[in-house]
Design a protein that fits this description.
The chain is mostly beta strands. It has two helices and 17 strands.
Length: 213
């Protein structure tokens, strides 16, 4: 099973596809999240499929967090302790990956301590310079990179990995949440990258980690 970036068909949920990855293609129109619903209180937990607009608490994620969704987001599968994988204005995966795929031998290996540096020196990425940023108010860094070939990246076991298709661009944000690295990974085609990442950032701007975490 592979989390893919673009041109994927997976997840049998009457939503045109996504199993652990990107939706089949990005031709469909999605509502902009800039009209995010007012946080009137947490909505019930959701599984795979359309994400109801409103405030959602992800108590199952470690560390717990919340986000306020507008219309147009789809969950690839139910959020769990390690990952929240979304399609919509952009492919967006929030996670704390335990593994990555080694670019040399393509084996699953423990995630390095510095994921930003790992992307920056990856042989299959043309990467920019790291930039200081925040995620949910926590300090971190982000890096943009273009895949020179189809490349598996963050992984959660020895089967599931996020694949960035050849030519696609990604933005990886890594924040330190009380000693635990939490990542936000967005992927899009180069021509749409800035607009799509801006839409994803609008959702990330609502992200809050549970106090005391």
């Amino acid at each position: 099973m592979i989390f893919r970036s673009v041109l994927i068909v997976i997840l049998a949920v009457a939503v045109a596809a996504v199993v652990i990855a990107r939706l089949s293609d990005d031709d469909g129109e999605f509502s902009s999240p800039d009209s995010a619903a007012e946080p009137t209180g947490p909505t019930p937990p959701f599984g795979a499929g359309v994400v109801p607009a409103g405030l959602h608490d992800f108590t199952q994620f470690d560390p717990p967090l919340s986000m306020v969704f507008g219309d147009g987001w789809i969950a690839s599968f139910p959020p769990d302790r390690e990952k929240i994988v979304l399609e919509g204005p952009v492919f967006l995966a929030i996670s704390h990956p335990s593994m990555v795929v080694d670019p040399g031998n393509l084996e699953f290996v423990p995630a390095p301590a510095d994921l930003i540096a790992w992307v920056g020196t990856h042989k299959n990425f043309a990467a920019g310079d790291p930039v200081a940023t925040t995620l949910g108010g926590r300090p971190g860094f982000m890096i943009d990179a273009t895949a020179l070939e189809g490349t598996k990246t963050l992984a959660f076991n020895t089967v599931d990995a996020i694949l960035v298709a050849s030519g696609d661009r990604m933005r990886l944000i890594v924040a330190d949440v009380d000693g635990k690295p939490v990542t936000a990974l967005m992927i899009a085609a180069p021509a749409e990258f800035e607009a799509k990442v801006a839409a994803g950032q609008a959702l990330l701007d609502t992200l809050r980690f549970e106090e005391g975490v």
